[in-house]
Amino acid sequence: MKTSTPSSSSADALSKRHYIGTESILSRLQKVRKIGQNRWVACCPAHNDRTPSLQISETQEGKILIKDFGQDCDIGQIMSAIGLNISDLFPENTKSQYYAPTKRARFDAAHILQCLAQDTRFVFMCAKHIATGEPLLDSDQKELLTAYARIERAFAAGGYGQ
Ligand SMILES: [Zn+2]
User: Fold this and answer.
1) How far is the CA of 7 from the centre of ligand 1 (A)?
2) Pick from 89, 82, 31, 100: which is nearest to 61 by CA?
3) pTM of the complete model
């Protein structure tokens, strides 16, 4: 009698979920801070990020959304910087629905504001200096442009840009 080797295809497809969970991703990032339910910020691993600009969210379907509001690093660069592949972000069955952040509002206003708290505070301080006729230090001027760029990108990413 012939013993048939079970056809592995369907069983393997189920067990072969090398999908990386949010926790595993967060454990590879620096300065991780939880800012809400299934929402975190961390330093972007793909550029020299001093204040956390990377936003990580997990949707109800278990999809992991990652966006860099600092220098808008490519998701591929971000993943490879922590030794992972883009495909690690998706459960096998949703691989076809490749996630790329679109211009539509993926991040709500409150989420964006939380991320920009430091930048807006800095811009506010500079504005106060300028309004009272105090000159800005060169370093502050540079920082101001960075903060401005971060705010602009965050607005655009949230679908609030022009
Ligand atoms: Zn980055």
Assistant:
1) 44
2) 89
3) 0.52
